[in-house]
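Input set for joint prediction.
Command: fold jointly, output tokens.
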Amino acid sequence: MILPKEVCKILDIRQGDYLTVKLKGTAILLEKEETRCVFCGNEKDLQKKYGEIICSSCLEKLIKAGFESDKK
Ligand SMILES: [Zn+2]
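tokens >
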């Protein structure tokens, strides 16, 4: 299956990304799966931080390294 380039660009879908397929009546819905840590690819203990999906261990490392920007 090939997705139009424009669609991939808008959703930031790259080759190898996982897409969730859902059925809605007779229509097929494709949803981009955001289930991996952007740093290590971990699929567990994920949370959204700084607009990215980050696992708790990477988040801890970031905070320890002084990247915590929530407290200003
Ligand atoms: Zn991680």
